[in-house]
């Protein structure tokens, strides 16, 4: 039986279709293998520290296999490390729009995106991404929470920071009650700048409920009362600081000099000075501040010297020796100063006017602070 022309045509069509399918699959597999090869080469280059070659291989892998999100994730991280932050941000932002990413992949993308914003110093958007990252975790890890709070602190969102810290208090490494108290102090300072003085004082009081030993709250509460023309309440707030934290009393001693002349206030202030001078747990900084007060405000250098000699017996420290040296020089007791403190001639006295140094960025400031204006970190001055 002879085959019909239609049968032969159909057979040829089927044969060419089969050949085409095989060729298409072969080319597709070749491209896929090529993409994976570039990806592996990129990882090898990273392991060898050759970032330039790694970038080139990641880009080649992305051109040949765009389905692998890890290529774009790692390429973006690498570009950020090389200073190309905007390009990194674009790559990672595009990944957030990709559909079908597994939950773990989404978390990885958001972590990289948060780092991009941090590198660009955009704490506002970084905090938003950090919050989303935490919301996607059933049990947020401590590092994610710590980074979110750090970004909230940088943008001074004290209310949200307090909410997060209070909710996940067991996850944080810092003293939570102390940190919540400082957040309340910062909110009070914001309100005070807006002229809402009563609300500001309420925040300072709330801070003391969270942490009764919060020196920042006492310090700013006294300053708030003094700004409102109520020096009596200011002195009362500072007295409570001196009584609860005598080792921190040196913070408010310079402020006591700003109280207006008043017989009642003068007696209360002098009583506080005498009380501090008799406390053994006052600490070197407070004793130095008291000595400065006696020498400069009370014009009593002999009393200042006696106080320093008393502290020297309790806890000898270089700053005490330096202060004594300066007093002896002022009293023109040159021989005694030369005999005992010759080795301190090239050192500056460390007193209450010494700069406050941030432990986070090492910037110095001339007033007590509980958040660094430079790096925006909280509680880095050891106060």
Structure commentary:
The chain has about 375 residues and is mostly helical. It folds into 4 domains: about 35-140, Alpha Horseshoe (Serine Threonine Protein Phosphatase 5, Tetratricopeptide repeat); about 185-270, Alpha Horseshoe (Serine Threonine Protein Phosphatase 5, Tetratricopeptide repeat), CATH 1.25.40; about 285-350; about 355-383. The protein has 18 helices and 2 strands. A two-stranded antiparallel ribbon has the order 1-2. A hairpin with a 6-residue loop joins strand 1 (about 355) and strand 2 (about 365). The longest helix is centred in the first third of the chain and has 43 residues, at about 5-45. The radius of gyration is 34 Å and the shape is elongated. The model is unreliable at about 20-35 and about 340-355 (pLDDT under 50).
Describe the structure concisely:
This protein is mainly alpha-helical and 383 residues long. Helix content is 68%, strand content 1%.
């Amino acid at each position: 039986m002879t085959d019909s022309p239609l049968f032969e045509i159909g057979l040829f069509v089927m044969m060419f279709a089969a050949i085409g399918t095989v060729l298409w699959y072969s080319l597709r597999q070749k491209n896929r293998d090529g993409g994976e090869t570039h990806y592996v080469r990129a990882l090898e280059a990273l392991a060898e520290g050759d970032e330039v070659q790694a970038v080139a291989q990641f880009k080649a892998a992305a051109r040949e296999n765009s389905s692998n999100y890890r290529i774009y994730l790692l390429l973006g991280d690498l570009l950020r490390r090389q200073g190309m932050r905007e390009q990194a941000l674009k790559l990672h932002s595009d990944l957030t729009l990709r559909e079908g990413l597994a939950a773990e992949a989404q978390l990885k993308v958001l972590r990289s995106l948060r780092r991009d914003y941090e590198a660009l110093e955009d704490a506002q958007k970084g905090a938003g991404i950090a919050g989303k990252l935490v919301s996607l975790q059933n049990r947020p890890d401590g590092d994610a929470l710590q980074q979110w709070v750090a970004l909230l602190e940088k943008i001074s969102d004290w209310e949200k920071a307090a909410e997060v810290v209070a909710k996940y208090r067991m996850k944080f490494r810092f003293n939570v009650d102390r940190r919540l108290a400082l957040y309340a102090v910062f909110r009070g300072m914001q309100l005070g700048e807006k002229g809402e003085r009563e609300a500001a004082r309420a925040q300072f009081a709330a801070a003391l409920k969270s942490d009764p030993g919060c020196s920042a709250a006492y310090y700013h509460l006294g300053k708030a009362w003094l700004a409102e023309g109520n020096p009596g309440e200011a002195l009362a707030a500072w007295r409570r600081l001196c009584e609860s934290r005598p080792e921190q009393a040196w913070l408010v001693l310079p402020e006591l000099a700003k109280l207006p002349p008043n017989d009642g206030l003068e007696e209360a202030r002098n009583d506080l000075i005498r009380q501090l001078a008799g406390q053994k747990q006052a600490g070197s900084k407070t004793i130095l501040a008291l000595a400065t007060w006696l020498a400069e405000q009370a014009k009593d250098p002999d009393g200042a010297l006696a106080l320093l000699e008393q502290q020297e017996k309790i806890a000898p420290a270089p700053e005490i020796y330096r202060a004594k040296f300066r007093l002896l020089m002022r009293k023109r007791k040159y021989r005694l100063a030369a005999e005992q403190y010759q080795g301190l001639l090239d050192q500056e006295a460390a007193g209450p006017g010494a700069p406050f140094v941030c432990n986070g960025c090492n910037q110095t400031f001339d007033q007590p602070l509980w958040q660094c204006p430079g790096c925006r970190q909280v509680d880095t001055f050891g106060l």
